[in-house]
TrEMBL record:
Residues 76-257 form the IclR-ED domain. This is Putative IclR family transcriptional regulator. One of its GO terms (biological process) is negative regulation of DNA-templated transcription. Coiled coil: none annotated.
Length: 261
């Protein structure tokens, strides 16, 4: 073995350990925040002895916390993460994720926030298809119509009551104007963790959306995929749910956010 080969091997050796540590940390999610050693072994595929050894060291160094047989990400990690997320620009995090969604689906991906009782598009990655929905940064849309509005209302009960208290103006024949029906649809979106709509804001157009949360577990925006129903029938929207929800979870975690308990 040449000297430089030996040097290269010694330099890369610690990375093997780091990759295993990352596998353990990545096994946790907002929907599965705690696990046993056995569950970690199943989730990572690492040998049981390796999981036991690494978990013991990670607990000792406060990367993980352990209560009984339950292991979770250490509270100290939140302190370390605070320095990474402090001053983090939401749009700087969201924009590359929107491009990934657009490239994976071929359809327009957008990010909406609530502003003065409306939802506003604040970031977008446009489809390359000639046939597309009319969407752009700064576009203002009433909250009751469409998947993004439904998601933004689902985790904001005060705003929901404000919207349901007044008359709902139809944007298309498919706009839900019955407040009792809309209330049920909002509750369903919260139960599902996403919303799919068709023809509510524009005729022959579909959308699906998922929420993004901050560190206080408050909804701060909605990731959405939108396009013509011709290319986005219900079956196709359902196929993209995991992609969209996973992307929203990625943005939430990057921003140091957490899901409501």
């Amino acid at each position: 073995m040449r000297a430089e080969d030996g040097e290269l091997t010694s330099k890369h050796q610690p990375l093997l350990v780091l990759s295993k540590i990352r596998e353990i940390l990545d096994a946790f999610s907002l929907t599965r925040p705690s696990m046993t050693l056995g569950e970690l072994h199943q989730a990572t595929g690492l040998p049981t002895s390796t999981v036991q050894r690494l978990v013991s060291n990670l607990v000792a160094q406060e990367f993980l916390d352990r209560t009984g047989d339950q292991i979770r990400i250490g509270v100290k990690m939140a302190f370390w993460a605070a320095t990474a997320t402090k001053g983090l620009d939401v749009l700087a995090v969201v924009t590359p994720v929107l491009k990934e969604i657009r490239d994976a689906t071929g359809e327009t991906a957008s990010f909406f926030r609530v502003e003065q009782g409306y939802r506003v598009c604040v970031a977008i990655a446009e489809t390359e298809h000639a046939l597309r929905r009319n969407m752009y940064v700064g576009k203002i849309v009433p909250l009751p119509a469409g998947s993004a509005g439904r998601v933004l209302l689902a985790w904001n009960p005060d705003l929901t009551e404000q919207v349901l208290a007044g008359p709902i103006e139809p944007m298309t024949e498919g706009t839900v104007t019955d407040t009792a029906v809309l209330r049920e649809l909002i509750h369903q979106a919260k139960a599902d963790g996403y919303a799919i709509t068709a023809g509510e804001r524009e005729d022959s157009a579909s959308g699906l959306a998922a929420p993004v949360f901050d560190s206080s577990a408050d909804v701060i925006g909605a990731l959405a995929i939108s396009g013509p129903t011709l290319r986005m029938p219900l079956e196709q929207c359902e196929k993209w749910v995991d992609l969209l929800v996973g992307s929203a979870e990625q943005v939430t975690r990057t921003l140091g956010g957490r899901y409501p308990s």
